[in-house]
Design a protein that fits this description.
Elements (H helix, E strand, L loop, with lengths): L37 E4 L2 E3 L12 E3 L3 E4 L3
Antiparallel strand pairs: 1-4, 2-3
Length: 71
């Protein structure tokens, strides 16, 4: 787990397809002020049979990702 679940963070809710995949759009304004901005993310999935996140039974977590806004 790469985030602190006791702190507020944006959360998106939805379902996956039959293969367990999901896409999410992240609109970023066309503004050069965002170039170089780093965003970090991690998915959490309700999964009673998966590898649990310590302290959060029934939740499996993805590896983290880092996104850098470019041109």
């Amino acid at each position: 787990l790469l985030i602190d679940p006791t702190q507020g963070f944006p959360a998106l809710f939805g379902t996956t397809n039959a293969l367990g995949a999901r896409n999410e759009l992240l609109p970023i304004p066309n503004d050069t002020g965002f170039v170089g901005l780093q965003l970090f993310g991690q998915w959490g999935v309700l999964d009673a049979q998966g590898t649990p996140v310590p302290g959060l039974p029934g939740l499996s977590g993805s590896r983290g990702c880092r996104l850098v806004v470019g041109l």
